[in-house]
Give the backbone structure.
Amino acid sequence: MASASLTPPALVGRSAELAVLDAHFGTALVRQTALMLTGEAGVGKTALLDAAALRAAEAGFRVLRVAGCPFRRGVGFSALNQLLQPLADGLPALPARQAETLQAVRGLSEEQPAELLAIANAVHALLARTVAGTGPLALIVDDVAWVDRPSATVLGTVARSLHTEPIGLLGAARTGDESFLSNIGIPEYEVGPLDEVSANELVAERFPAMAARVRRRLVAEARGNPLALLELPVPLNDLQQTERGTLPAVLPLTERLKGIFSTRVAALPAATRKLLLLAVLDGSGELHILQRALGLPDGLAGLSPAERAGLVQVDGVTGRLEFRHPLTRSAVMELATSEERRWAQLALAAELPEGSEHRARHLADAAVGPDDEVAALLHEVAYRTLRRGDAVGAITTLLRASELSGTGTAKARRLAEAACLGANITGDLRNVRALLDNAGHADPSGVGSLAAATAAASRLLNGEGDVDTAHRLLIGAIETHVWPGDGESVEDIFREALNTLLMVCFYGGRPELWHSFEDVVKRRRPPTSRRLLPVILGAFADPAYGALPFLDRLDHLVSGLHQQTDPVRVFGVALSASYIDRLPGCRSALRRVVDDGRDGGAVALAIQAQFLLANDAYAGGQWDELLEITEEGLGWCETYDYRLTASTGHFQRGLVAAARGDGDTAREIADRLVSWGNPRGLGALRVYAAHIRALSALGDADFDAAYRLLRALVAPGEVPRFMPHALWLPLDFAEAAVHTDHHEEAAAHIAAVRGTDIPSLSPRLAMLTDACEAMSNPDVIDHSLFEAAIATPGAERWPFDWARICLAYGERLRRAKAGGAARVHLDAALGTFERLGAAPWSARAAGELRASGIPVKPLRPVESEDRDRHALLTPQERVAAQLAATGLTNKQIAARLFLSPRTVAAHLRSVFRKLNVTSRGGLRDALTGPMP
C-alpha cells in the first residue's frame, strides 16, 4: 500500500496525473466514466486517490470511498458496506424489497442477503436516487484486488450498468493484480515513479537536514518510488543523514518496505538466495565472479527462480547480472544471517588478487574483531581513495581501519589521520575534537603526531587559538615526525600539514613565519613530493619576488586542471594563481570542487574554492555574483565552524560594500575583522580591514584618511616580502598619495614595484603599474603611460581598475584645460562605474564632468535586439566608434583622445568585428547615438 503520509498537499511531481484525474471527473459531470490507476506498490496510488477525492469534492461531487483490505477479504460484503454506510439515509426511499435487501447486506435484517444480481440492482437504484437528489457521485475504490469476492461481484456489475448517470468511478490496484474491474473494459492509467528532480524535491522537503550526497544515494536506490523515498531515511540516524556517519553499503529496509520487497525474495530457494547475496556484496554483476565464489560448476543455475520471479535479469549486451529494483538488494541483505554475510564476503575476497581494493573491503566487512593485517590493507585503500578525489570515502575507510587496529598506536594514528583530513578537506571540523580525544585515549603518546598536530592547528585557527601557537605546534610536529615505511600515506598527511602551515603563515602575515616554513620544508620535505609546493611558495606566498620563475609551470598546471580529479591539487593550483591573475583558467575546476561540496564531499575545500571564485568575480566586475558566491560560502563556514576561512568571504563583501558606497556595512565588516583577528595574531585580517576602509575613503574622496590607512601598510620605496596582498594596493596608494601631495612617496613606491617582478606577472598588473607611474608625476601629464594603461589588451576584463585609471586620466586632463579629451575618459569611467553600481565613484566622475562645464548627455536607450551587441564594446571602443561615426579620421580621433592613430585603428577594427559592420558609414546605425 502507498504511504499514508503522502497527503494531497504534499504531492510532488504529479501534475500530469492530477490533470488526468481532473479530466476524468470533468467527463463524469455529464455521464458515467471509470478509470483504473495501476502501478507498483508504494508508487503513490493512494496519495493520488486522496488528491482526487479532494478535487472531486471541490468540483461538486459527493465522494464515496471504499478500500480493500487483505485481512477482511474473507468477510463477505465488507467493502460494499463501506459504500452503503454514508448512503443509509436514502434506503427508506427505495422500493421495500430493495431496501430490505440492502439492510440484509448491512447485517441489519434477519433475512439472508438475496442473490448478488438483486443486490447489484438495489445498489444501482440507490446510487441513481442519490445522484438525482444530491448531484454527481465520485466512487473511489483503493486496493481493488483486495475487495472481498461478494462485494467485488456486486461492484463489477454496477460498474457495467452505469451508463448515463453522472458518476465517476476511480479505482487503484497494483500492476498485474486481477480484480473485478480488470475484465470489464475500463481504461487504465499506469502511475509511474517520480522523476529524479521530483524525487529529490520530496526527500529534501521531508528531510531538510539530510546531506545532498545522502539524498542522492536514497533517490538512486528508491528509483522514484515515493514510499521508498519516505521510508529509507527512517532507519538512518542523524549522523548518517548528515553524512557525518557512514552509510551502509546496502540500505536497511523498514517493516513497510520489507512487506513489499522481501516477500518474493523469501519465497526463493535457499541456493538462489545464496547466489543473490554474493551478487549484492560483489556489486559488479560479473557472472564468472559469482560462479567462482560459489565454487560449483553449475552454480549459476540457481539464478533461474529469481529471473522467473522478475527480481533479476542478465543484460543481453554486457552479460552482467542486474537487479530490477535496487531495494531488492536490500531485501536480500535483510533476509541473510550475519554468518551468511561473512561467508559471502570471504568467498568473494578469495577470488580477488592480493592488493585489490575490493579484496581489502570484503575482508574488512567479514572481520568480527581486531585484525591488523586487514587494517593495514584498509589504510592503504583509504589513501588511494583520497587520491581519486573522494575524501569522504577516505575518512570512512580510515575510521574502519582504526576499528580493526589491534594496537593503540595504530588505532590512534588512523583516528588522527581521519581528523586531519576531516579538518582540512571534508569540513568535519565539528568532529575533530572527538576524533582527537579518541586517538589520545588509544595512545596518549601519539597526541603530538603530525596528523594530530595538523587537525589541532586547524581547530585552533578557527576557534580561540592564536597563530603563534598553531605555528609552533605544526613546526614541532614536522621537525620531530618519524616517517614510517608507507610513503604514500606519509606524503598525503605531510601535504595537509604543509597546507595548514601555509594558511597559518598567510593569515599571520609576518615574514618570520614564512622563513621558518621555508627552513622546515628544506629539511623535512619528502622525496616523493609532487613539486606543487615550490609553485605555491613562489606565486602565492611571495609573488612580488618569487612568482616569475614559476609562471610557465603554473600556466601548464592551470591548463591541465580540466583533467584534475584531486580537489586538494585543484585548490593548490588555484591558490597559486590567485594573486597573479590566472584564476579565470581555474573557474571550471573550482566549480567542480564547489559542486562536490554541495553534494556532501570536500566541504572545507569547497569553501576555499568559493572564495577563490569570488576573488575572480571581484576583479572581473561581477560583484552581484560575488555576493551570491560568498553568501553560500559563509553559510557553510557558519555550519561547519570555519571562522577563520570566513574572514576571506567577509573581506570580499566588504570590498564590494566600500566600492558601492555602503559605508556602514564596510565599516562593520572591517571592525569585525580587526576585533576577531587582533587577539589571535592574524595580521592578514588587519590588512583586509585597512583595504576596505581605504577603498571606502577613496570613493568618498577622503584622501587623507585613505593615505593614513595605506601608509601603515606600504613603506614608500619598498615592496614587502611575503605580503601577497601588496599586489592589490599600488593603485590605491598612488591615488591617495597623489591627492595628498605625497608625490615623492607615490613615485618611490611605484619605482619599487618596477624593481620587482610585479609588472611582468600579468597584463593587469602591468596596466596598474603604468597608471600609477603616470599618476605619480605632478609636473606633466604622461600621456604615453596613461594611453598604454588604458589601451591594455583585454582591459575590459578588469572594469573597476580600468575605470579608475580613466577617471585619474580625465581628472588630470580637465585640470590641464583639455576638456574635450577629459570628457571622453570621464564618460567612459562614469559608464563603467554605473554598470558596477559603484555609486561614490560614479559621483566622483560626474563631479569632474560638471566641473569641466560640459553637460553629460545620456545615451539614447538601446533597442533590445541591439543591446547585447552594444554591451560587447569596451568604453574606449565605444567612444572611438562614436567619433568615427561623425566622420573624424583616425589621426583626428587620436588627437582628441591622446591616443596613437595605430591604437585608434585597432579599436575600430575590433568595433567593426563586434558590430558586424564593414565601414564607418555603418557605424551610425549600429551605435546607440552620435557623440554630441
Remarks:
- Strands lie at 33-39, 62-67, 137-142, 167-174, 188-190, 312-314, 321-323.
- The two ends are 76 Å apart (CA to CA).
